[in-house]
Amino acid sequence: MDSEVGDVGKLEHHNLYAYCINNPVMLADENGNWPKWLTVVLIAVAIVTVIAVVTFFSGGLMAPVFIGAGLGALTGFGTSVATQYIMNDGKIDWDQAFVDASIGAVMGAFGGSAIGRLGMTFAGGFTGAGGELASQLVAGGQLNIGAIIGAGATGALFGFISGPGAQHGKLTNRQKIKIRKKDTGNKARHLKNLDKQMTKYTTRLYRPQ
Fold first, then answer.
1. How far apart are CA 120 and CA 38, in angstroms?
2. Longest Cα pair distance anywhere in the chain, in angstroms?
3. Both 94 and 188 in a single domain?
4. In the chain, is it the N or the C terminus that has fewer CB atoms within a 10 Å radius of its CB?
5. In terms of domains, do 113 and 182 share one?
6. Pair (29, 45) in one structural domain
7. What is the pLDDT of residues 64-104, one digit of tens each?
8. Through-space distance between the first and last CA atoms of the chain, rounded to whole angstroms
9. Could you give the CA distance from residue 173 to residue 181 in angstroms, rounded to a whole number?
10. Which residues contact 103 (CB under 8 A, 6 or more apart)?
11. How many CB atoms lie under 10 A from the CB of residue 171?
């Protein structure tokens, strides 16, 4: 039976079996509520999508972002399950595992983007703090602000050490090439130097013996 009553005056909100289409015998849900971990997963998917779109419009590719997100999600999920299994005598909190997978997906997406080292530092801090907050909200109870700040600091340090995203160097080189192409003065200098070199070469070639 759904524990959320709804708004007073709306009869459809007072049907506590609406979540199972009025068939609680054949269709079941643990408590009739939207799982909190699913909210975290959807937020992570939205963030990854935004990172991919921004990378694309910055001149990068979307595929490395999604590949990084997938690898990060698998790593986060696998690490969480293995750690819990070892630390908790074989007991696994699957909600926490999905939260950790979401955190890994976001960090993996940043890793596959064109973000610089400074950006990765802020991204790591944001992801670390947000992941710890999500974990506490899913678990319930009182928020531990100190743990959230600590996780943010750890994430920022990890992001700084990890360095820029995989596409950062390529985009930087492309931008430099575009700037050189737009710089007419640079073209003129290049042609002038080339002309000098050709003049020296022809002078040496046809110098009388």
1. 26
2. 109
3. no
4. C
5. no
6. no
7. 999 999 999 999 999 999 999 999 888 999 989 999 999 99
8. 106
9. 12
10. 44, 76, 127, 128, 130, 131, 134
11. 20
